[in-house]
Amino acid sequence: LSLTVADASALPLSPQVRNEFYKDTQGVILVYDVGQKESFDALDAWLAEMKQELGPHGNMENVVFVVCANKIDCSKHRSVDESEGRLWAESRGFLYFETSAQTGEGINEMFQTFYSAIVDLCDNGGKRPPSSTGVGFTKEQADAIRRIRNSKDSWDMLAVKPGATRDEVNKAYRKLAVLLHPDKCVAPGSEDAFKAVVNARTALLKNIK
Fold this sequence. Notes:
One of its GO terms (molecular function) is GTPase activity. It comes from Scopus umbretta (Hammerkop). It contains 9 helices and 4 strands. The chain has helices at 15-18, 37-41, 43-54, 82-90, 107-123, 139-149, 154-158, 166-180, 190-206; strands at 3-7, 27-33, 64-70, 95-98. The protein has a 4-stranded parallel beta sheet with strand order 1-2-3-4, with helices on both faces. The longest helix has 17 residues, at 107-123. The model has no long low-confidence stretch (mean pLDDT 86).
């Protein structure tokens, strides 16, 4: 078993030391602190570094990834909610767990699922079984949820320019409503995104004659 743990919330090791861990990796645990948004944002850099170190012949599709949203015991200081973390992980086909190293919550379940996935990987000739990589939502849905979450106002949320007509607002709303309706979209955060879109449309139409 070759395992790499990337703790985005800890003091980083030097690149020369980290690079030794990547070769022949079968499983990766990505850990971030739910109270430190910068540690969550750093996950993309960890993935990019790993991809670079594996080189052109490395296949990250055949590595089991687990994302641990850690320190959930510190809920008062949480800055990355579950739906945001889960969306990041599941849109990439990664396993996701809410954990607390302090209380032990979620730790046993995470390791049991993680090691079972690696056993399945080994039993399948070093390749992740198809069932373990399936995502129940599209990249378009995931991207829309992220964009809505980061929107600065109602215009931005509906992706229309300020001063758009009622027809343009309604057209943009209908497109997003079909894409994100909770009855048809299982992506984490879709329900909140759908409600935000409804509220944005209502707010804009009130000010358009």
